């Protein structure tokens, strides 16, 4: 496949490397300084784009792909208020758009464990739920997209939790799920969900040891999406 890399930073570099190891060609590697290269790119020769840029750039990058009939896989976080617009455009263009806040298989298993635990805890009124995420200091958004997905899972499963809130310390109103975001190098991504009571704590934790799992997941999805249409996510890709 010919893969267009939109955002050639920490993730873009590992994605390119893994894609080439798997026999793919990189059509172009686009960063802020060479974004004008897109104007002369032969879009007919691009099979799929993988977009890991930054919150302010994701919407325009994805829109450009859809307008040029290129299936696009995006993992950029911190721009999701505009996602409904992209979904509309994808349907109108009869294109393909895949989004995941986290492409690692381990985190997607963790998402399911998180929902299961939240369902069990729904009747346990003595426990307070809270979350902590830890990432490297270059991360631009907080809380992480993964933390937001985890929080949304908890909110859907627990009647008493109505919303999440980014906080410095884990003390908020009863109906709010407090999320603490720590920035410590070189953490690639750690997420901890805790249920605390006077008697005990229950904790689930996912720790990424590197960015490899995120990058490999994105390349596997790009291989899978090539001939697909519509708005897709990890629930379409994973069969567990
Ligand atoms: N879903 C997932 O599984 C994962 C998601 N992420 C997310 O992916 C995103 C990228 O992460 P990461 O690689 O660590 O970040 P980096 O900052 O290392 O890389 C982002 C790159 O995007 C480039 N960029 C900026 N503007 C544009 C533009 N208009 N078009 C194309 N590229 C542009 C930046 O260029 P320059 O430096 O010149 O500004 C930079 O090289 C983040 O939102 C992060 O949260 C990260 C890991 C996993
Ligand atoms: O910026 C990162 O590094 C990461 N971002 C994603 C997120 O915001 O959830 C995924 C992963 O945690 C790494």
UniProtKB/TrEMBL annotation:
Pathway membership: Amino-acid biosynthesis; L-lysine biosynthesis via DAP pathway; (S)-tetrahydrodipicolinate from L-aspartate: step 4/4
Identify the SUPFAM superfamilies for this entry.
Glyceraldehyde-3-phosphate dehydrogenase-like, C-terminal domain (SSF55347), NAD(P)-binding Rossmann-fold domains (SSF51735)
Name the domain of life this protein comes from: Bacteria
Sorted keywords for this record are: Amino-acid biosynthesis, Diaminopimelate biosynthesis, Lysine biosynthesis, NAD, NADP, Oxidoreductase
Instruction: Give EC number(s), comma-separated.
Output: 1.17.1.8
Q: Which InterPro entries match?
A: DapB_C (IPR022663), DapB_N (IPR000846), DHDPR_bac (IPR023940), NAD(P)-bd_dom_sf (IPR036291)
Gene3D superfamilies assigned to the protein according to its UniProt record, in alphabetical order: Dihydrodipicolinate Reductase, domain 2, NAD(P)-binding Rossmann-like Domain
Example GO molecular function:
4-hydroxy-tetrahydrodipicolinate reductase
Q: Does the keyword Acetylation apply?
A: no
Q: Pfam families under this entry?
A: DapB_C, DapB_N
What's its catalytic activity? (S)-2,3,4,5-tetrahydrodipicolinate + NAD(+) + H2O = (2S,4S)-4-hydroxy-2,3,4,5-tetrahydrodipicolinate + NADH + H(+); (S)-2,3,4,5-tetrahydrodipicolinate + NADP(+) + H2O = (2S,4S)-4-hydroxy-2,3,4,5-tetrahydrodipicolinate + NADPH + H(+)
Q: Which residues form the Dihydrodipicolinate reductase C-terminal domain?
A: 106-238
Q: Where is the Dihydrodipicolinate reductase N-terminal domain?
A: 1-103
Q: Which family is this protein grouped under?
A: Belongs to the DapB family.
Q: What is this protein called?
A: 4-hydroxy-tetrahydrodipicolinate reductase
Q: Which organism is it from?
A: Negadavirga shengliensis
Higher taxonomy: Bacteria, Pseudomonadati, Bacteroidota, Cytophagia, Cytophagales
């Amino acid at each position: 496949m010919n893969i267009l890399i939109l955002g050639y930073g920490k993730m873009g570099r590992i994605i390119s490397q893994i894609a080439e190891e798997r026999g793919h060609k990189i059509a172009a590697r686009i960063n802020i300084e060479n974004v004008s290269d897109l104007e002369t790119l032969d879009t007919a020769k691009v099979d799929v784009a993988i977009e890991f840029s930054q919150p302010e750039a994701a919407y325009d990058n994805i829109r450009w792909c859809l307008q040029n009939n290129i299936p696009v896989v995006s993992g950029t976080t911190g721009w999701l208020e505009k996602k409904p617009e992209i979904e509309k455009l994808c349907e109108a263009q009869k294109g393909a758009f895949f989004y995941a806040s986290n492409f690692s298989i381990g985190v997607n298993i963790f998402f399911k464990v998180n929902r299961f635990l939240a369902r069990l805890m729904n009747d346990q009124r003595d426990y307070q739920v809270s979350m902590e995420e830890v990432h490297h200091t270059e991360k631009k958004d907080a809380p992480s997209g993964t933390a937001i997905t985890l929080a949304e899972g908890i909110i859907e499963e627990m009647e008493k939790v109505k919303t999440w809130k980014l906080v410095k310390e884990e003390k908020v109103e009863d109906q709010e799920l407090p999320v603490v975001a720590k920035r410590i190098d070189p953490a690639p991504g750690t997420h901890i969900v805790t249920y605390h009571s006077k008697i005990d704590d229950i904790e689930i934790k996912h720790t990424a040891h590197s960015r490899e799992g995120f990058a490999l997941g994105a390349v596997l999805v790009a291989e899978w999406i090539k001939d697909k249409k519509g708005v897709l996510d990890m629930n379409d890709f994973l069969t567990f």
